[in-house]
Specification:
CATH class of one domain in chain B: Mainly Beta
Oligomer: heterodimer
CATH superfamily of one domain in chain B: YVTN repeat-like/Quinoprotein amine dehydrogenase
Number of strands of chain B: 32
Strand content of chain A: 15-25%
CATH topology of one domain in chain B: Methylamine Dehydrogenase, Chain H
Radius of gyration of chain B: 59 Å
CATH architecture of chain A: 3-Layer(aba) Sandwich
CATH topology of chain A: Rossmann fold
CATH class of chain A: Alpha Beta
Chain lengths: ~210, ~1100
Amino acid sequence: MASRKRTLLKVIILGDSGVGKTSLMNQYVNKKFSSQYKATIGADFLTKEVQVDDRLVTMQIWDTAGQERFQSLGVAFYRGADCCVLVYDVNSSKTFDNLENWRDEFLIQASPSDPDNFPFVVLGNKVDVEGGKARQVSEKKAKQWCGAKGGIPHFDTSAKEDLNVDDAFQTIARNALKNESEEELYIPETVDVNAQAAPRRAQSSCC
Amino acid sequence: MARDAAAAAKGGGGANRGGQGAAGGRHIDAFTLEHMLEEKRVACLEVWSHYVLVGLTDGTLLLVSQRRRVPSSSSLAASDADGSSASAGTDAAQAAQQAPGQPPPWAVVQSLRNFGKGQIKQLQVARERSMLLCLADDGVNAYVLPGLRLKAQAGRSRGASLFAWHGGSDTLAVVTKKRLALFKYEGLEFVFQREAYFPDAPTCMQLYMTVDVATAIVTPLFTTKGPAASMVPVSATEVLLARDSSGVLYGPEGRPSKRGGGSGAVDWAVPPAVLAVSEPYAVAVSEAGVEARLLQPLNAADLWQQLALALPAAATSCGVAPTAAADGSLFLASRGTGAIKQLRPVSFARQAEQLLGLGEHEEALAMAALIPLEQAEERRQLEDIIHLGYGRLLFRQGQYEEAMLHFGMSGLAGPLHLLRLFPSLAPPKLLAAAAAEQAAAAAEAAAASAVAGEGVGTREPSQAGEQAAAEAVQELEEAADAEPQGEAFVAAVQVVTPYLLSHRSRLAAAAASPARPATLLGGGGGSQQHTPQAVAGLAGEVEVEMGPSPSTRAVMVQQQLEGSATAALLDTSLLLALLAMPDSGALLRFVHRPNCVDLEAGEAALKGSGRYSELVALYQTKGRHSAALELLHALSQSPEQLPSPPQGAAAELRGLPGVWAAVKYVCHMPEGERDLGLISTHAKWMLAADPDAGLEMFGSMDPPLPPSAVLPMLTSYAPQLAGLYLEAALATGAADPSVYEQELARIYLERIARSTSSTIGAAKGAGAGKAAGKPAGKGAAKVAGEAAEGVVDEAAVPEYGKLKQLILSSCRLNYEALLLVIPQHRMLEIRAALLERLGRHTEALRIYIHRLRQLGAAEAYCDRVYQRRQQQLREQRHAELAAALRWQRQAASAAAGSGGAAPAGWASSSIAGLGGSSGSIRSLQFGGGGHSGSGTNLHAAGVPATKLQRAAGSGGDSEDGADIYLLMVQVLLEEEDSSGTFHHVEHAPDHAVWGEVPLASALPFLEGALWGAGERRRTAAVARNLRRSEHVGLLGELADARQRHVLLTPERNCSICYKRVGSAALVVFPTGMLAHYSCHRRASGAGQQASGRASADGTANGRVAVGAGGGSSFREWS
């Protein structure tokens, strides 16, 4: 029996309170946005099927609470994550500065097998606010930080305007898939038409 | 496609490996074989719209359909072009005749005789061109669909045996014997392009070849040993070729396809004679029957199906329609028997169900993904079931993480489903209650729907709940054996915990949403992209309006969840799960927050594991303060008596940490839940164990306990702390000074009395020793003597000074009462202080002077009394001024109301009059003349003399402003000290009191202030100049005093070297002796020789000598 394809991806969204984690997830999955801020209590997840190249994968997106008072149990959610999304508010330098802490905490708590190559994606949300005039974190600065961390992909997003949300999550899914081990499938370039036909089941005698 | 492939296959008996050779994969019912009709003359088949076109050997074309229509012409109805608008009337009539659920029978709806000349050998629909290509004896003809009118004819195709059409390039390939002719369809006709030749007639070959349509170059591919070479297009770019018992996919450029990343091969059990494709299956027809296999695996397992054709053995020559119908049906005909059969596909949903039954969950999910979009709801329900089943399977296999992922994706997997897998985490009683609650809620909802006319036959909610509870318990018992143990259990719990938490989040979200009952949403799954709660409010959040803060909302949600059996089950399970995991502090934090943990179950679990800190927190959230404090008492004072050794944070609570934990507990006890009896009970051991902690407890409560409640406790258990407590309470305002200052004084007195009595006792003991002849020092005797008088030790007691200070500073004490309780010959300073506050100064001074013999203290007493009196006078004066001003404003207001006006200037005169009355206070008059406002009886105004009040009608005319500044001047002058600076004036008018005041009215005050400042500056300048001249004069006098004459004669010798001084530089000592300057320098060690007749040297006793030889006289300055 050939090795089973991975079709489920676990994605964790982290970031300070109020940066728009839930809004991003809700926009991506449900195509809905609410301008009312409701602090997330605890954590929960949504799922979405997404086509990555020729593969249909299911993303399980975990939205965690950004407020410290609700984070006490957050570490339980980090296990087995395939990708971590770090979200900050481009209009708040503090939320960007805290990305380092979020990243470190994730790596400590999740303990991925290869921390240096674990896929992160950084989203600078709320670029729509005041037409960008309120922006405090420039894209250049954010990309410099991402570059220093091993080339983390960065997106300017707006959950409100649905700007770059799909692209960002597509990248998230793609990077999460990259992290999985390569399937060991034999893919012949050509078929030797003169060779004796060998039924495929003979190759997979384990089945 | 650059190249098109045309191949012929015929003859050649391939190896037949037997009908049941499909050992790999799982059998599935992918198709059903149904009989259509029999037609002995059948030669070929094709499908178009809802018709099956049957070409006969006599050139007749039959149109077979399940939709009966009235043949009205020789053409197909135009409306049938899309296969959607057959005659509604006939269809309805037909539907009425057939059995329900059964498809209508196939029937020939039209027969077109002589459609082709001779035998119709091949039919193919060119869908891109809406044409039917028909090969008959007269060649390949193209007919327009749906009219079936002849449109074009391929030239030189008479006698052809095969043709192929490629819609993408409008290319027609026609084989006539060994010749292949290529045509291009250009809209009206087939234009010959080029031709190629095969080595043999294709109908006889077992060799596959490719022909380049651009160059007509023929390239052999491979041969097959099967009964016949067969091929079928799979897509616009791929063909499936039969090679022996395999099917090989070929793509563009004539190369094997890499479809799906695999080898692009399908393995049949028997070498096929004919191929067909109905996605996702490839179908091979052989003598054994029909075999369907997946073109590529959906996931890992191969799926196959074999169907017997039930045809006579001789009937091996079968024709298959080259394309599948819209519903995926394939049609095949036996040329020998004339039987035409339909291979109808089983719906993807049913196939997915079969796979689910076979335990092939991945394949079932993949199959469900093929369900058309219009059946999305059916697909969702099916996927929910598959995910749920798959999750259970994976869980049993120990793949907990994958299992939970699938549970999370199933909308059916509520918390009960999860917890049934973990009997250890779900107390049966709670599980049954939660199941009953959810079932009852569901039944209630169903009943509501039934009332609304949406359903019938619902059960009573109570019955449903009872049954569900019984089932839940039974399932739990069954699952007990499957529950992992040991490390596997911990691993599984670590995986399931986030999901339990997410269910709790959803429950909270549901509770916060009044539109949705929490009990129903407890079973919501994770596939929220479909679930209603995701639309109504995003799961994982408490969707409340902006108003309350997150903490307030958490409390609101908690209130909503109280009483919910599902919430109780979830929270208890979470407690047990966190208890099972390694201690990270998460459990303590969890129970610290409002929760719905079942107290009985939680208590038992926490006690059993020694997690007493968590149990205390649980008690706290449940309001079980008595139990919590008892436990803290035991943890602090007697942990060895607890049933289990304390673990985790509780292990560190032995001794003082436990006391402080109890203190903290009491401090955080909600005000409404405070039980004074309970606090008193536990204050006893806390105060005994650590008095400071006990005191901290009473001081840190917010809001604080009333002193009336605290003082009895302190008096009983720690009397030494009562004074300290009351001091702090008075300082923070927790105690009313009018009540508790007297109490504090009483406590001080008691403490002093208790301390001094013990000291006196000790001193008496010492005195007795002395009387017994023991040697005693002078100091000891003095102490004993003083102690006998009650003087010495009182002052050493801290409360003595505090009491004295309290008496002197407080104005609320009952001095008379205190004076009565003080002993006559002790606490003399206290007595003096009391007498001072009572105004009995003579008696007080007598104590200081005659009994205490402290003249300094008596002097300080006098100063104090004088200052106090001055302060009283000042306050009285300010009050009088304020009263005067208020009265004046009232008068001005009254005058304005009566049309008159107050005469200018009388305000200042009235104030001046007041100033005069006080005698010692200067009064100034600015502005207005000497008009006297007689008749101003200030005291008649009846104004309280303590605080200024805003005058009625203070917003009067601008003239009123002047009086304010006059008052200010008056007050400021009174407050002016000797250095000419002003002190803060307590009763200074401000805006709130006086209202708007014009700036111009400040002019008199400013003039006076400037004049005064200038005067002071001039006075200072005169004083400065006088000082300077005095200084200069003094300097002159000093110089004169130091000046004297020294007579130098030739006989005078140096007092150092005894040589004559001569005319050398010299120094004169204060004694009148002379010395050479050089000798003096040497003698003093300076080593510096002066040059010249005059030199300055500060080392010679601070003198400067100027030498002039030859009997000159010198003047010396110091």
